[in-house]
Amino acid sequence: ELSRPGYGRLLWPGKTDLRNLVDCLDSLVQIETQKAAVYPPGFERPSKGEGLNKRCEYSMEGVWPKDKKTSERLRDARSLQRFKGQLQRAADRLCARMLEYDDKAGVWRIEVNDW
Question: What are the residues whose beta carbons fall under 8 Å from the beta carbon of 25, sequence distance 6 or more?
């Protein structure tokens, strides 16, 4: 598991061999505001299922529905339900599986098969 408090975390279930990656993890994995990148441009991506290029759970923090005009956080049930639909469509576009959205904590969890 790799995390950046206030931004999110990445969890690779099972065993992951990091022996050859330890010295470059800071460059190899980037967790930013509402996005994460593994093997960004400039890094050679291993075959699917090897290294970090495998199934991963991504928990994104600070994900809230906001009013388009005021940027204030929306808390009503209708807005939250609409927002959950938007998150599901975003997961679909990413070819990811939406695991959950915690509207109290503002945490959106998805699962990707590879990076």
Answer: 2, 18
